[in-house]
Amino acid sequence: MIGGKSREVCVYGDALIRDPLQAIFSIETYERHRLTFRIHTRILKKAIKTETELQHQSAEPPNDASATRRMQGVLISLAAFLFWNSSLAQTLPLPPRPANAPSGDQIVQDISSLSRENREDSLFRQIMSGNIPDFMRVLVAVTSTASVGGSQRSVTYFVTADYLAVGSNEDYILTPMTPLLAQRLADALQCTLPTRKMVNDIYAAAPLKLAPAPIAPSAEMITVPVFARHDSMVWAQRSPQLATFPLGTLIGGTKKDVVISNKIRNELKAGVLKPVVIYGWHQLNGVPIQPLYNGHGETYADYSHGIRLVQEAAHLSGSPTEVSAILKDGALSAILSDEGPIPYPRYGDLPTGMTGGSGGGPRGSMVFQNYPNPFNPTTVVSYQLPVASTVRLAVYDLLGREVAVLVNEKKSPGTYEVKFDAAGLASAVYLYRFMAGEFVQTKTLLLVR
Fold this sequence. Notes:
alpha+beta, Immunoglobulin-like, 9 helices, 29% strand
């Protein structure tokens, strides 16, 4: 219950069944193997059984109108399945939501009196424990394009359908947070944040666009009660749209975005050496209320700020890549950034020896995020080498035990793909470690059966 109102919801891909005749299938597990979902056969059989029982119990045979309605239900369900099966969906690598996890209302009560630091520590623990709405786990594909070297190039990346929230499908709250927490979560979930251009492209791609709902500025706009008040205002707009646009539909217009920008380190305002950069809150005419702005410090967050996670794993004209790698590239960055290359596309201190100026990012060895991820039972890991190197690529469990060696030989310069088959392993989070000469990089992968 949020703002005193229970959320009766319709959800893409969720086994929330009010009437089995209106939900012929449910999604029990979703996987990233070319973004295919398994039909929940048990629910399908239950729906058919229920339909048969209803017909037997009915005193009158079904008329044409009732038969039409039932057929429409089947077609809607099939359309939903085809949507999931054909869309380029990805999922956040989080555990299932705990059965005893607090609801959105409970979280509001728990964090209202906390300091900012303690509040954000609490939100981090809640999210990393899996306490987010199920619909938010499934990411939505967005494609950005630009002319690069006289040719149209495109990058497809995957974003949260709505701004980050905690709680359940029925009772959640959109959670403003500082860029410090947003980056911490992005790092833990193999994600990044969008740029201004990406925010524009996401808004353009959103089937559901809602009008911004501002609250008059005040000293309280950075407090949890005002966060909750604005959440209720957004829900009042969102809930009438559920029948047409279920939870899980890409949505825009409800928040300003915390974005990646060169203005994190350049064109700084007096007295704000470490800013949060915000942008967006598009009106229905497509014009954003908030221009790109870096006048607040990195510890600031008010009710209007939203966090849209973007998975690092992406596709450049069909080939695997990472969003951050594209943003660093002197030419390809134009696909995702209208500010030129962003050499260090994240919040936090710069590594030793780096500056915040524009220009091409460093080129060298790197390993990309495996794709698909989560996976069952196979996934592909890609890596690139600028010079000939002895490469070792191995997979470990969380106890540090080596479970597979994918590569262990000298390789020429180039880009490579290697398939990992986890047929003999249990569902879990694993690590893969890439070593090329003195370069070492480790990433996580998630096997879900």
